[in-house]
Amino acid sequence: xxxxxxxxxxxxxVLLGASSYGVLSTxxxxxxxxxxxxxxxxxxxxxxxxxxxxxxxxxxxxxxKEYKIKFSKSDLIKLMLTGIPIGLTSVMYYKSxxxxxASMAILxxxxxxxxxxxxxxxxxxxxxxxIQVISIMLLLIGTTxxxxxxxxxxxSLTFKGIIYGLLAACSYTAFTFVSGKVATNVDSxxxxxxx
Length: 195
Description:
The chain is an all-alpha fold. Helices cover 76% and strands 0% of the residues. It is built from 8 helices and no strands.
């Protein structure tokens, strides 16, 4: 695969992820409106996700006789521990959605993009490229204008909502940083299922 095709593919994945989280916050707001609790929302999401992923694993086994469930006990433990930050992301993000408007919760959450670059810079001594710096600046400028900060847009926010939103971004940053480095020998569907 050519480099440009690879970059385009990842851009599409990020766009799909952003859209998913944007739609998700609307569903979470509706669920809160119907009286569901934070625990019920997180449990139902992770429970359904886990069932769907295991179903995918077993369908793959049924379709492809060569496909096997294959991971070591060490891989299992590492992947389950790697899943903790994504679980925390859900809890913090949904708590943020409970406290602030859904559009602001998603803006706070998407700060993980510059946080990820900062983590790479500190832990891997990797200096961001010019395009990354420009992207981060555009993200921060866009966040500022999207939040309507100049017209009193922050008046509808709570301190707790902002903290939860930024904690969701931090835990997602941890997940994205660690997940690509743990048990990479395990099949991707099985990795997701175990996380």
